Amino acid sequence: MKIDPVEVFSNALAIAPIRFLFAWLSASLGGFVPMLLADGSDAFEGLGWYIPMFPFHLVVTAFMSSWWGVIAVPLILVIAYRLCRFMTSDNTGSELMVIFTLAFMISVKPGVDARMVPTIVCSTATLVATYFLVKRDRELYPE
Question: Which terminus of the chain is more solvent-facing, meaning fewer CB atoms within 10 Å of its CB: N or C?
């Protein structure tokens, strides 16, 4: 069976916008959940501008977070790498969970400042769930 390079390239181009949309929404949701924990239902007031401005919001949050910026700025680089990796390879949904978790960890400081216990519980649960999901995914689908 021959592999047609034109067909492979056209399939990759056809799926790229959908993969981009999934990555954008996963990261936007990951960045929005700490705002939801911090502000409750008032966080939905800013949701309309938040999703289109998501990359700018993450970068500003990372650089304006005082001591948290030491952790958040390197996470910006990791999330950029993960987004590129998700866009260019045939990864499963666990990569979206990693993107969600990284965006969550970048934006988590305002949630910790406002409501510490629920935010720490949610962030710990997110990290543990992501770890086990990625571990299971790597066992099922070795690269």
Answer: N
* Cβ-Cβ contacts under 8 Å for 103 (sequence gap 6 or more): 26, 27, 28, 29, 30, 31, 58, 79
The radius of gyration computed from the CA coordinates of the chain, to the nearest angstrom, equals: 17
**What DSSP designation does 44 have?**
G
Q: What is the DSSP string of 47-83?
A: HHHHTTTHHHHHHHHHHTSGGGHHHHHHHHHHHHHHH
Parts of the chain with a pLDDT under 70: 1, 6, 8-9, 12, 46-49, 91-92, 110-117, 119, 143
The helix/strand/coil state of 111 is helix
Residue-level pLDDT at 114: 63
Instruction: Supply the DSSP symbol for 25.
Output: H
